[in-house]
Amino acid sequence: MSASEGRGGTGGDALTLDVPQGGGARYWLARLNPAAKLLAALVLGIGLIPAVDAVTGGVVLAGVLLVLPFSGIDRRTLLVLGGPFVLMGLSNGLVNYLYGEHGAEGALGAAVRLLAIALPGLVAAVTSDPTEMSDGLVQRLRVPERPAMGVLAALRLIPLLADQWRTVTLARRARGLEAGRNPVRMVALFFGRLFALLVRSIRTGTLLATAMDARAFGTGPRTWARESRWRIGDTLLLAGAVLLLAAGYTLSARLGTLVLLFS
After folding, report:
1. Is 221 exposed, middle or buried (0-12, 13-18, 19+ CB in 10 A)?
2. What pLDDT sits at residue 10?
3. In percent, how much of the chain has pLDDT > 70?
4. Banded pLDDT at 13 (limits 50, 70, 90)
């Protein structure tokens, strides 16, 4: 899922960036500093918390969608990773429509707002190499080493967990544990595989934590093999995020649709 993996090319089953070898000028978002992308996502996410109307969140969501073609995220990856957030947005909108005080307008605003908050973070995570992300967190954002290395480990373990899920599924299928067309048994087998994956992830996390402690992470200053560089494009990205957020509030205020939280 990292930029480096996408540039090198992977198999058809992998979720990668659609970035050619060498990057290419078109996919400029994938080459920016991960710390800048993370800060831009935080600016948009925190800035949208007070606004619950559809216009403010819609402007931000439209702006993020406009830069997606320059991120290198292929359609399959976007569909697989963004699908759960779309479902969350729809369910959030439905709950607000049924039990909220603002009807359909409030439901639409809740759904759009959730997507506008989630999508920038998703783009920042998918377009960033895990190692470069941890370097940027420590060197640029001055995050302590332990949580930064925890982020790196978590991102590196995502493909491993996917492989373990497939292994558990194939192992149970080899033992004849098939649901067939029985939906009740299908749910039971799913939660059984989920519990097995949880056990494996706990074991993997324990071994990883022991290995990190053995390497004295977080016990003192360390040197870094790679320097996390901050370029003009990173500053422009942050400025663009602030301007996009300001544009959303300005447009909704002029249209008279701005609704603030707890107002």
Report:
1. exposed
2. 41
3. 87
4. very low
Number of C-beta neighbours around residue 37 at 10 A: 27
At residue 36, the pLDDT reads: 94
Spatial distance between the Cα atoms of 245 and 237, rounded to a whole number of angstroms:
12
Rounded-to-integer distance, Cα 119 and Cα 78, Å:
10
Domain boundaries, the chain: 3-136+229-255, 145-214
Tokens read off for 61: 């969501």
Q: Is 23 left (phi over 0), alpha (psi -120 to 50) or beta?
A: left
Taking only the tens place, the pLDDT of each residue in 18-39 is: 554 445 567 889 899 999 999 9
Spatial separation of the C-alpha atoms in residues 22 and 112, rounded to whole Å: 35
> What pTM, to 2 d.p., does this model score?
0.74
- What helix, strand, coil percent values describe the chain, rounded to 5? 70, 0, 30
Q: Tell me: pLDDT of 8 over 50.
A: no
Q: 4: closest CA among 17, 180, 15, 173?
A: 17
Question: Kindly report the CA angle at 151 between 148 and 157, in degrees rounded to 5?
Answer: 145
Residue 186 near residue 173 (C-beta atoms within 8 A):
no
Q: Which residues contact 83 (CB under 8 A, 6 or more apart)?
A: none
Q: What integer is the mean pLDDT of 197-223? A: 78
